[in-house]
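Continuing the batch. This is chain 6 of the set; chains 1 through 5 are on the previous pages. Same settings as before, nothing changed between runs. Recording input and output for traceability.
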Amino acid sequence: MKAILVRPPKEGVEIKDVKQEEVQNFGKIKIRTLYNGICGTDREIVNGKITFSLSNKNFLVLGHEAIGVVEEGYGNFKEGDLVMPINRRGCGKCLNCLLGRPDFCETGEFVEAGINGMDGFMREYWFDDSRYLVKIPKQIEDIGILAQPLADIEKSVEEIINTQKRVPSWTCDDGTYNCRKVLILGSGPVGMLFSLIFRTIGFEVWISNRREPNEIEQTVIEETESNFFNSSSGMEKINQKFDVIIDATGADASILDKVFPLLKRNGVLGLFGFPISGSFGVDFRSIQEMVLSNKVIIGLVNGQKPHYQQAVTHLASWKTLYPKTSTLLITRTVPITDENQVINVLREKQEKEIKIRIAW
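Output for chain 6:
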């Protein structure tokens, strides 16, 4: 079968035929791949920038975002069902992993499909177990590939809400979050998905970037009635305070020094993704401010099966709530038969990209 292969930590990617016995499979349900999503992690592996990406053989099948159709069913999954695999699998040792929550693995020995220690889903078909599969309704097949990255954001927002249960009156006087404000740093794909989730649950959303929004981002901002701030002249000019601040830039960590003063009392600074440079200095004054104002800094990573299911629900709802936005979320589909274009989109982010998918 055809598969997209990498050899981490070496740079490079190739499309080759492999034998079934050469790749890993994980259960009795046979799934034929329909789509793979491409994200920044895939590109970092392809370009040799992630040193923790490893394989237990001389190659790794790339790909942690996939939708497939069941060809050989088992249990609650029948032939013809559309499914998405959970990409992180547990260590099999700690209690959290045994309870299906490897996002809180205590040993650090979890594996991630197409990233570290486990073959991914950029191949013609794979076999999997029902506990690692989520059904995708045919009605959202066109945007369903977003359920994987959106699951990570669902989990992140859940963590923030759970953290804020420490505050007796964090909801508003009408029981909603309509009086709360969130600032999202970065208007790329992750920032857009964060904005959609926070708007859906009622927050006033502010999005910032050091440039003006492109046409796709502007459509999302307008349809969701969010706010945009161009931070090129300095974050201090935003003249707002926020209950939640999310770093979705994946850029220089020094931006956190500039936005930390914008956090309200009892607020949460959420860190999503990995900065590629810079530093964030928490001096004694900032520590005093954190203590006196009950502020929290929290790392956000990896959704699991409940979050995938919630992502499916939100994607379905956005088709009604934000119909223009829904049509723009998949910015391009590249057929696997066009190997040159597949290699190209795996190497470089494309202009105005939200999500690019490979069609098999």
